[in-house]
What does this fold into?
Amino acid sequence: MLVLVAVLVLLATRDLAELRWVGLLAVAGVPAVVAPRHPVLGPLGRFAEVIVVALGASQVAAAATSSGAITGALGPGLGAAALLPYLAVPLVAAALHRRAWESGALLGTAAAVLLASGALTVSAGQRQLTQPGYLAACAQWLVLVALSAVVAGTLKRVLRAQDESKPQPYAEATRLLTQLRSVARQLPGATLDPGGISEHLIEELRAVAPADRMAVLSASGEERHAIGGGGGGEELPVGGALSKITLRASK
It folds into this structure.
């Protein structure tokens, strides 16, 4: 934005000396760039930017009128439009930081400084405040930057609401694990591990029908396993197709 207003100022005034306002803007914006969320430095930097823009717009308008670069019925004072687009930067920044009150205060400050500077500055034999070009440029950009701040603030709130409505990954994972734990507690052996379930089945069967050796054959995907009881409870892979868990016991 600084580059844009610098080009516009040069086109409007044809005077390199007027670029001093762009330099002042760069300096005034340092606090807002370095510490945009700071409760003091951020707002101070943005208010400084607004004041520099408003003062500079009046002086650039006077220089543009003197240079004759802008002609026509609205020519006198219209050069203020070269610097006023930068007003969108501090106002939109405040809106994005969810400081609606600050955006309103910045807009009011800009309007007040533009009116005061226009009333005190004489250009082309008349005060700027009486020049239609100056009034048109100021009114146009004040309305545009106000709309920009409103749109930016609304978009920020909408995006924030959407983010808050989406379940967070960790919260969703925790919820699923909690549900899975509740289901697992209702299973034999309170576990989802096939080996643990098989050993629990063997223990229950041994209490009902004693046997020297028992085995549970289970299938999980492409793998088949045999969990034995009475012989160490070892788990061995087996071949063949198993359509269900098979329990075998022998004396």
About this structure: Residues 235-247 have pLDDT under 50 and may be disordered. Residues 191-250 form one domain. The beta strands are 122-123, 126-127, 213-220, 223-229, 235-237, 246-250.
